Amino acid sequence: MTVQRRGPLLVEGPVEIELEDGTTVSSDRFRVALCTCRRSRRYPWCDTSHRRKA
């Protein structure tokens, strides 16, 4: 896992994520970006929304 300041967490795949409501999402991609700012419309996957000023 790679932590980026003001950016997503980069995780080597494949990954399976359990969300706070108990649902599970998965990706079989080589590397995925996990949203840490909760601005993403594709949460928990990062869509670079953190780059836009609020």
TrEMBL record:
Protein name: CDGSH iron-sulfur domain-containing protein
Organism lineage: Bacteria, Bacillati, Actinomycetota, Actinomycetes, Kitasatosporales
Keywords noted in UniProt: 2Fe-2S, Iron, Iron-sulfur, Metal-binding
SMART domains: ZnF_CDGSH
Ranges of residues in domain Iron-binding zinc finger CDGSH type: 12-54
Entry-linked InterPro entries: FeS-contain_CDGSH-typ (IPR018967), MitoNEET_CISD (IPR042216)
Organism in which the protein naturally occurs: Streptomyces olivaceoviridis
